[in-house]
Design a protein that fits this description.
Length: about 525
């Protein structure tokens, strides 16, 4: 593709995107396709001859878009937000065209140095002092951030245990290592524990789904009594199920009592809100934290993928990940940062570009306004739910997530969610919180208003009536079925055991007369 053709194709894509954002609110929010639907429409082998770009774009529209769930739709309330700001997308566009591989400072100095600067811009997230051994790095996802920190914690624990028990090999220590997290924590923690081949204890949280220090201390004490070795604790700010946040202050005090414990905070969602001063009470106790991750693609208008990870001691993080083959070494190893030592992957995209573009273009005040608007709309929606006596809100609404259910009617709640999602007018996701089945309503799309909340609530109310009617119909059918079943049972028993229903027969069989 020459530059002239590239320019023409770029205009086609931009026009397509502009039109998409104009119509997205008017199309169904979700799809109706079934697994492997694309195999019917796309060739199994790559073509020998090139296709026109216009044809490729047309195939994208006709064949691929029908299987897209529209995360930027105003009635998309599932999961959590996924950033789609235009300026961040443009930064990704530039990054892709530059084709930078930032595995070392020498490979592309600006790639490394912009990441250093970008990770320092949201300075209120950083919990290490200037000139300390800490620092920040961009990871692919929160799963990778948690895994990297657990690997580092494991490496530090094994290093210490080798010194203390030189007669034992690493395998003998590894089977005793235990990581701890809340029962509400992300599945990423469990996945990291599986990869690290360590035990994971999920600690029961309190009634607000917040993990407290005394709950953690009880489990740790029990494990130590059985000869196990606590080495990692992962707290959460903004759980997936209900956006609850663990008590960092009390958890940190417990973690620091154990010399080997690495205390990590997964703030994938709620960590974004810390850009607003009113949310910084969540950071009480952060001085005891060893590492902290958040996902700016969730709530700061940065496109996926991009996870920010800050550590108190970068040398401890790097120790288990250092890799220095000759082809990537350079003459500034003691002065420059090489981020390949901070992550699983050696090669790195220039993700810092979209953080820098987003912060520069929007500014802190606009990002604060965006987050506050979502929080305000969540409270507004909470009020709508509470205005109907058939419903109850089940979580403490602080961020942009509202969990609700139909009062004491789990099956009706399930039916309501099924009816709503099947309609394709709205999309929400379920969660199981303290044994209760609830519907998660996440305020996601940018530029939402109270009018959008009203629209979503009206859709929910419409399908509430449908769900109630459906359940009433099933209940009526169940009653008829129960009566028929009882009649059938009585008839069968009368044929097989006539004396059961005719006492005269019973007497006759016993030698009595009528």
């Amino acid at each position: 593709m020459d530059l002239k053709t590239f320019h023409e194709c770029t205009i086609q894509v931009v026009n397509y995107v502009m039109n998409y954002f104009k119509i997205v609110k008017d199309i169904p929010v979700s799809h109706v396709v079934k697994p492997f639907y694309l195999r019917e429409f796309l060739p199994e082998e790559a073509p020998l001859k090139p296709a026109k770009f216009a044809q490729i774009l047309e195939d994208f529209e006709r064949k691929i878009m029908p299987g897209i769930t529209h995360w930027q739709h105003p009635q998309f309330h599932g999961y959590f937000p996924s950033g789609s700001s235009h300026v961040s997308a443009l930064a990704d566009f530039l990054s892709g065209l530059l084709g930078v591989q930032g595995f070392s400072w020498e490979a592309s100095p600006s790639c490394t140095e912009l990441e250093l600067i970008a990770m320092g811009l949201p300075g209120d997230f950083l919990f290490h002092a200037d000139m300390s051994q800490g620092g920040g790095v961009i990871q692919n996802s929160s799963s990778e951030a948690i895994l990297v920190c657990m690997l580092a914690a494991r490496a530090q624990a094994l290093k210490d245990l080798r010194i203390k028990f030189p007669e034992k090999d690493d395998g003998a220590h590894l089977i005793k290592l235990v990581a701890y997290t809340s029962e509400e924590a992300s599945a990423s923690v469990e996945k990291a524990a599986v990869i690290c081949m360590v035990k994971l204890r999920k600690v029961e949280s309190d009634r607000k789904c917040e993990l407290q220090g005394h709950q953690l201390q009880k489990i740790i004490s029990e494990d130590i009594m059985f000869g196990l070795i606590p080495f990692f604790v992962c707290a959460t700010l903004g759980t997936v199920a209900c956006a609850s946040s663990d008590n960092l202050d009390s958890l940190g005090l417990v973690a620091k009592k154990q010399r080997l414990i690495w205390f990590h905070v997964d703030a994938s969602y709620a960590g974004n809100a810390l850009i607003c001063p009113e949310f910084r009470t969540l950071l009480k106790g952060v001085d005891n934290v060893d590492s902290f991750n958040m996902n700016p693609y969730m709530w700061m208008n940065v496109t996926y993928d991009c996870t920010c990870l800050w550590v108190k001691d970068r040398f401890n993080l790097q120790e288990g990940l250092v890799d220095d083959p000759l082809d990537v070494m350079h003459k500034h190893p003691d002065q420059a940062v090489d981020y390949r030592h901070w992550s699983i992957s050696v090669s790195r995209r220039m993700r810092s570009l979209k953080i820098w573009f987003t912060l520069m273009y929007h500014g802190i005040e606009a990002l604060q306004a965006h987050i506050r608007n979502h929080c305000k709309l969540a409270k507004y929606f909470e009020g709508l739910v509470k205005s109907d006596a058939r419903f109850e809100v089940t979580n403490d609404v602080r961020c942009g997530l509202v969990c609700f259910r139909m009062r004491e009617q789990e099956q009706m709640t399930r039916e309501l969610l099924e009816q709503c999602n099947s309609s394709r007018e709205i999309l929400m996701t379920p969660a199981l919180v303290k044994g209760q089945y609830v519907i998660r309503f996440s305020v996601n799309a940018p530029h939402l208003t109270e009018s959008d909340m009203n629209t979503s609530w009206d859709i929910i109310l419409k399908y509430t009536d449908v769900a109630i009617a459906q359940q009433a119909k099933l209940h009526s059918t169940d009653k008829v079925y129960t009566r028929l079943s009882a009649f059938r049972l009585k008839w069968l028993r009368s044929m097989g055991e006539p004396e059961y229903f005719n006492t005269g027969i019973a007497k006759c069989r016993q030698g009595d007369t009528f």
